[in-house]
Amino acid sequence: MSTKNNSDKFHYDLIVGDHINGDGHDRHEAVSINSSHDMESLKAAYELGVPVLGFSIKDVCRDSSSLTADLIEQLEVFGMDTSSLNPGFSLNSDEYAEIWVLTAKLGNPDLEIEFGARTASFHIGGYGLFD
After folding, report:
1. Which of 22, 39, 70, 83 is 20 to 30 A distant from 130 in Cα terms?
2. Using CA atoms, how far apart are residues 66 and 6, in angstroms rounded to an integer?
3. What total number of domains does the chain contain?
4. Which residues pair with 35 in a beta bridge?
5. Does the residue 99 lie in any domain?
6. Domain assignment present for 129
7. What is the pTM of this model?
8. Which helix (H) or strand (E) holds 57?
9. How many helices and strands in the chain, by DSSP H and E?
10. Rg (Cα) of the chain, in Å, rounded?
């Protein structure tokens, strides 16, 4: 979901987890951000930031949910507060998104990204629409 708000910033819900039905997992959460750049610019900045950071959080968390001590140390080098991160313990959606955003900012230092208030959502039916 994307909207542009009155402050000329884009609002996005970053979908963390499995957003594709069909493989039996289908567990995900949304983390809201406000960004100075559009979605394609954010994705490109992330890819540019991966070699700067030295790892891709998407690759690390493809089949795992925890970081090693070395990866946590690398995040500290780039100024992230890692006090809530412990080697071997699962990341939550907010922590994952924070690392993704840090990576994007490393790829494009002109990015302005703020985490927004999480909004509530609810299911309104329509199962038959997706036969």
Report:
1. 39
2. 37
3. 1
4. 10, 113
5. yes
6. no
7. 0.82
8. helix 57-60
9. 4, 4
10. 16
